[in-house]
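subagent[fold] <- orchestrator: predict structure for attached chain, return tokens only, no commentary.
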Amino acid sequence: MYLNYFGLHTAPFSIAPDPQFLYMSERHQEALAHLTYGLQGSGGFILLTGEVGTGKTTVSRALLEQLPEQTRTAFILNPMLNEHELLATLCDEFGIRYAKRSITDKKLTDKLSSFLLAAHAEGEQCVVLIDEAQHLQPQVLEQLRLLTNLETNQHKLLRVILIGQPELQDLLRRRELRQLAQRITARYHLLPLQGSDTERYINYRLQVAGASRGLFDGRAIALVHKLSEGIPRRLNLLCDRALLAAYNEQSQLVTSKHIREAAVELDGHRPVQRRRVSWSAGAAVAVVFALLAGFAGSYWLNQQGSPTEVAADESESQVITVTEDPLLALTRSWQLPRPAIDKPICEWVGAYDLGCLQGTLRYDQLMKINYPVLLELSGGGYQFVNAHDIQPDPEWTGAFVLLWQHPPGYESEDGELYQQWLLDALVSYGADKSLAVTDQIQNLQLSAGIPVTGKPDGVTLSWLSARTQQGGPRLNPTNQQAVTGEFK
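subagent[fold] -> orchestrator:
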């Protein structure tokens, strides 16, 4: 209805997965990189999770387009299968012929095995991609694991990519699936778009649809990002309705008023602004003591070493309540949902493939890591630092907590992907390949101005992650290359 009015030749915000509207944000590109790394490793399973509408299917389609020609793929869109139906579906997807009336699970398995061996002999890789995998039954997942047992001395004959909602992670934590969980060599949780990506996303789709100018003003884009929470599918719905509202008013530009009207039409009520929760004095005291308890242990441990050597590493014992504003600011900077109040923050963020680094460092060293950070203050409060030009509170104790993006394969039992990522990251900063890895790391630490341990500790990995991973917030996003040139 509004296409001619705005000079468009096609609807720019259709929720259909049209390849011509494919927009890869930084987080989508990072998810794609993790999946690509996973296919290069020796493991059998790769995991991609995300909330509804975050673009998991977009990433999977981009992955399929980038697969080499020597790849045979089976794409399962309906995971509501039993074990027999799974084997039959895989044969159908790979084009394996079988007599349907007299077929058994064993015959199907034998045919799949023969097919995979023949494909490997011809230099081909076989990949199964399962969408909405959170609906898979445990027995079906176990059948998939058994199929991935087929392998040579160096390679798995079958790779399985599981794509699903966060419930898939809960499913894989079940005890009967622990063997499968141990075979996941790469995993990524896709978070919503950041504010800057939302603006690029909207303008990109408008341009593809034929727009010769921007159709959304700045306030409208900011509001649609807030109301959609950065979820692409909801972005499309809101923008489509907002364009219609602007057309009905014969407005040449979509404003925040039109975004609000679109939200009312979609949700059936006015958007309610979240109110800041006020806490009683007693609750505030309890929060402070809980936070101090979490920081005190790591601070005391760090003080046991040499006064000139500061250590910091990951810990699962960190106890921080989620009712403290600075902590919420830290998690919001990563666009994470509200943390669970019954789980330590450093344990909770693991579900999003993030690391939790805590300890004591000089402020200039924290700034070099380049991730937002939470500082402990001696008076019992905390300071959230999200930019280089923010000065630390005079009461800062030196203790901190920050989140960082895990590299591919970091938590997998198959360390091949992680080791390759580490070597590639060192080489990208001029490491001398003739030196031992310990010496390469030590030289990097000296050049970067971070504690020199000669080990890939939490500080070093987070420093590298901030420069080699695309997603996630930065203290200084315009200048992430803090160290340039070669180091010896």
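orchestrator: received. Logging for downstream: Residues 26-190 form a domain with the Rossmann fold fold (CATH 3.40.50.300). The chain has three domains: 1-15+194-267, 26-190, 326-466.
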